[in-house]
Structure prediction request, 281 residues.
Amino acid sequence: MLLTLDEWIARNAIAFAPDHAETLNAAVDELVATLDHSVGVLGFGEPMHGAEEFLELRNRFFQRLVEAHGYTAIAIESSFTKGRIVDDYVAGRRGTSYDAIQDHGFSHGFGASAANRALVEWMRKYNSEPKHRAKLRFWGFDSPTEMVGTDSPRQLLAVSLDYLDTTAGPYDTDRRHRIDELLGSDAPWEDPAASFDPAKAIGLSDAATALRIETEDLISELTIRRPELISASDADRYADAVRSANFARQMLNYHAGLAKNNSRRLVDLLGMRDVMMADNL
Prediction:
């Protein structure tokens, strides 16, 4: 028998009082008890952006998941690229205050949220305590796109290039120079007008097309040299470099989509953003 939504909620809902820690913690514990090892990502819905109450509840959920159930990472709907800045902050590798990273570490202005500030500061404090051997990680899983405008792929490519240079020495000493020349200024890549006018987008220019080929070559090198590179660094750093290069490729494809003038342009761009978000998760 099919249940109505109200019937499903009545049968499966776990009641708790948002402002009562004991019942909230018990609800989280009961939820986790229903999960099995096939659950790789536990999602918490955000019905609307800008409502601090939902984010405050998210914070309390996450703290309970960390302290009682061994969770070690959170991903929010903010720029993947900018999220690296926040991750460095919670690890104690960057910045001395949240104010120093709030504008550059989030997209969509989410750094101004009091609840996001509280989350990040709690994570940094948690990581600073020696008794916590498993350190917390912060991720953004959104594509580096705003409501209007798209980031240059420069920062993503720099992660992979820096990794190769510092791990195994320059394999192709001219590659960074070629990529820098093809990138040019970030302003044309990030021109908000490109969101509305394909003629303003540069993603199908000769330079952008050549940059996509350079990015494919970069990914190939990382893949071919995998055993050597992991041995010279570690699996996490290698995975980060590969992830950044692959994401740069996706961003270049997105910029190419911005430059296409057809009836499916907006639908295709939204689909590409969805794929990037899913891949990041």
User: Anything to note?
Assistant: The CA atoms of residues 79 and 142 lie 5 Å apart. The radius of gyration is 21 Å. The mean pLDDT is 93.
